[in-house]
Amino acid sequence: QRRQKSDEEDDDNYGDDDGDDDDDDDDDDDDDDDDDDDDDDDDDDDDDDDDDDDDDDDDDDDRLVVVVVVVVVVVVVVVVVVVVVVVVVVVVVVVVAVVVVTVVEVAVVVVVVVLVVVVVPMVVVVTVEVEVVVVVVVVVVEVVVVVVREVVVGVVVGPMVVVVVTVKVIVVVVVVVAVVVVVVVVVVVVVVVPMVVVVVVTE
């Protein structure tokens, strides 16, 4: 009977030990769950860091795009302004040349008319008959020569002069435009592009 009691007590004690072991296993499982939660938090932090890096890269790309767009817009505006100025200068020069030629032609015609209408009659009245005939012939010949000469100048030489002047102006304008374009390109390549690179690298 004593042995049976001892065995029963031992069984009870071993049974209690088994219960304690189960509790220890539960605690270990809880610790494992906590470790898993910590790992998940670390992964979330890593993902947040990656997102921040991606945002920084996107900001840098956006800034670079904005700088490039601004440079292109400035270059286009400069070229357009230069072209407009050149066109305006050409038009003004051509108009001035045509106006000058027209004024000269009108002035010549007025002089001829004054000679024929005013000077010739005055000469006829003042001079004697023989002198009148000679003067009239001379004046008529001079008037005819002047008229023919001015007509030739107005019809042939005048347009030729205008064409020559226009061609010269066009050549000068083309040369000036070419020089301006070259200067703009050089400035963009030598100044603007390095500035953009420095700004991007600095940021």
UniProtKB/TrEMBL annotation:
<keyword id="KW-0812">Transmembrane</keyword>
<feature type="transmembrane region" description="Helical">
    <location>
        <begin position="66"/>
        <end position="99"/>
    </location>
</feature>
<feature type="region of interest" description="Disordered">
    <location>
        <begin position="1"/>
        <end position="59"/>
    </location>
</feature>
<feature type="transmembrane region" description="Helical">
    <location>
        <begin position="132"/>
        <end position="157"/>
    </location>
</feature>
<feature type="transmembrane region" description="Helical">
    <location>
        <begin position="169"/>
        <end position="201"/>
    </location>
</feature>
<keyword id="KW-1133">Transmembrane helix</keyword>
<keyword id="KW-0472">Membrane</keyword>
<protein>
    <recommendedName>
        <fullName>ABC transmembrane type-1 domain-containing protein</fullName>
    </recommendedName>
</protein>
<feature type="compositionally biased region" description="Acidic residues">
    <location>
        <begin position="7"/>
        <end position="59"/>
    </location>
</feature>
